[in-house]
Amino acid sequence: MSDTSAVGSGTETDRGLLFRGSDVEELSDLISVRFAPHRLSVLADHPLDGRFRSVHEGALAVYELGYGAEVDVTPGVPLDFYNIHVPLAGDGTVTMNGKTLSSPLSIAGPEQKLSMRWSHDSVNRALIIPRQIIDQALAVRLGDMPQRPVGFVPVLDDRAGPVRAWLSVVKHFAEFADSSLAARSPMSVQQFERLLVDGLLDAQPHVLSEAVSGRGCAALPSAVRRAANFCAEHAGEPISVADMAQAARVGVRSLREGFRTHMATTPLAYLRSVRLDLARRDLLAVGEGHASKTVTDVALRWGFTHLGRFAGHYRKAYGETPSQTVRSARCVR
User: Fold this and answer.
1) Taking Cα atoms as reference points, which of 106, 99, 190 lies closest to residue 152?
2) Of the candidates 236, 226, 82, 240, which has an alpha carbon nearest to the alpha carbon of residue 149?
3) In which band, very low, low, confident or very high, does the pLDDT at 8 lie, cut at 50, 70 and 90?
4) Cα angle at 153 between 168 and 220, to 5 degrees?
5) Does pLDDT of 213 surpass 70?
């Protein structure tokens, strides 16, 4: 059998070893219990030489997994947790909701459909974070539990400083979890877990990034904050001021007064700004090669059906046109 190095410590270790061998059904059953029910198919004629190791199992879990053969992995149901793949060796392809991602360094969340193909020499570190852990961290910052799972940008760009720093924390946590100190210091483990969750929310863009970073609505009156959070979570849907007022649990007139007094804007103008921010995020992803959409595709996705008005609002907000954003992002690749 070939060896797989535990990259957290740089040496081979059997600490936390759950499986080592060629029994496809046994490995599939173990992964199903700890991840989700799935179908594991070995491709070509190369026999399975799998290695599945638990690095940490607590409020969140960290595993290392290699198959020793080219495989297809397809969960049978949409996820009910956040699954982050950090490739350590080899190569692979991740498909989310039918779209192939530009990198296997990725995060999938609740309600998303996932499939993967891994090369025979691939080794992945997988983080499993329950939805309630992310929701609780968001509630601390925003004052309310999110109504829906927060959607992250699926590809982690390790060229970005915050993402690179967060991945370093993941690596150091794996090293720490492999040490004897982890068993003797549960409080340190809990602090590390919180650092991983809070760091992820700050490093990887998602629909509530503005709010959790302190640039959003955390200090606002509860009704306005609820409406603002509702905008962030439903920005891709055809929502109205009445929908926002219902989510805020106030009347339309009170909501308008709250936005005028505390945010110096109107509910619809605020919703438009949220959609513009999300459109800019998508345009940057297009320019960086993480998506293949056009400017029109992005505009329509976020409810801007009049492209001239979209370009005008966008230029006013960011000082450049949508096309210039895409070109600028391409220049720094």
Assistant:
1) 106
2) 82
3) very low
4) 95
5) no
**What pLDDT score was predicted for residue 220?**
62
> How high is the mean pLDDT of the chain?
87
200 Cβ partners below 8 Å, 6+ apart? 84, 107, 129, 166
Predicted TM-score (pTM) of the model is: 0.68
CA 45 to chain centre: 34
Phi-psi region of 21 (alpha: psi -120 to 50; beta: other; left: phi over 0): left
Amino acid letter, residue 123:
V
**What is the pLDDT averaged over residues 135-149?**
82
Averaged pLDDT for residues 199-209: 89
Which 3-state string (H, E, C) describes the chain? CCCCCECCCCECCCCCEEEEECCHHHHHHHHHHHCCCEEEEECCCCCCCEEEEEEEECCCEEEEEECCCCEEEEECCCCCEEEEEEEEECCEEEEECCEECCCCCEEECCCCCEEEEECCCCEEEEEEEEHHHHHHHHHHHHCCCCCCCCCECCECCCCCHHHHHHHHHHHHHHHHHCCHHHHHCHHHHHHHHHHHHHHHHHHCCECCHHHHHHHCCCCCCHHHHHHHHHHHHCCCCCCCHHHHHHHHCCCHHHHHHHHHHHHCCCHHHHHHHHHHHHHHHHHHHHHCCCCCCCHHHHHHHCCCCCHHHHHHHHHHHHCCCHHHHHHHHHHCC
Q: Which residue, 35, 118, 41, 131, is CA-closest to 77?
A: 35
> What is the rounded average pLDDT of the residues 87-112?
92
Residue 321: burial class (beta carbons within 10 Å; 0-12, 13-18, 19+): middle
Q: Whole-angstrom Cα distance, residue 302 to residue 269?
A: 14
